[in-house]
Amino acid sequence: MFNLKNKVAVVTGSGGGLGEAMARSLSEAGAKIAILDLKDGGKVAKSLKTKSKYYQVNVLDEKNIQGVLDEVEKDFGRIDVLINNAGVFFPTPIIETDASNWDKIINVNLKGYFLVTKHAVPKMKNGGKIINTASVAGTHAFAGSAAYNASKGGVIMLTKTMAQEFAPRGILANAICPGVFETPMTTDLLKSEEMNQMIKGSVPLGREGKPNELGPLAVYLASDENTYMTGSIITIDGGWTCHL
Ligand SMILES: NC(=O)c1ccc[n+]([C@@H]2O[C@H](COP(=O)([O-])OP(=O)(O)OC[C@H]3O[C@@H](n4cnc5c(N)ncnc54)[C@H](O)[C@@H]3O)[C@@H](O)[C@H]2O)c1
Questions:
Q1: Relative to the CA of 209, which ligand 1 atom is closest?
Q2: Which of 35, 110, 118, 135 has the fewest CB atoms within 10 Å, i.e. the most exposed one?
Q3: pTM (global) more than 0.90
Q4: Residues 196-209: pLDDT tens digits?
């Protein structure tokens, strides 16, 4: 079950963290992987068992995206799965945040998903699957993170729009909303006593998630067995938001 043999998956932000974990799980299920990241993902690509290659891309640069996706198509023949995942996080309390910092988060986390999808979908000629990494911050507001919350809320609405626009092409699009996972993005956050107390007190499973706990969900969403789930927003957070 959930065999991805011969599928070609493009995963943005897969030079580390959740993107790397999803790329790894997809590869273990047989998919060939295009690792797209701003930072060097060469080591990750080399460590995967299936054919895989790293492409440097800045998801803010439309020409760069187009060029890289053309290369992916030349190298792998087609695209079956797209995971939009490259993202940034830093605090943005509303009255203290520069417009340029607002733009940075919204542009990487939301416009980047739009741009990569815009140029990947015409290459998904046999239909396929799109998975967008949103966040519990897209469904529940966290004070001090206005731009991040708004970007992830935007990803949820973008996902629902993708589901509608791409259904006639046989492309199913869903969003994943992780809670707190241990990645380079959260390393500093997870060092704070306050954060650890919050996790112990508010997350029913009493701990943060490990990146490899996200992989199997991505494999299912990407697989041929997923024939009827599209436009869905799937939370994976140890139960955190059940009581928010
Ligand atoms: N870690 C968590 O707790 C958590 C929770 C919810 C959602 N998320 C989301 O999951 C996704 C992955 O985050 P992560 O925790 O693995 O963080 P991470 O920092 O480990 O990974 C993010 C990746 O995106 C890449 N990236 C950033 N800007 C880019 C750009 N302009 N162009 C191309 N690549 C770029 C980075 O180089 C990095 O490899 C993000 O969208 C994040 O918002 C993370």
A1: 3
A2: 118
A3: yes
A4: 999 999 999 999 99
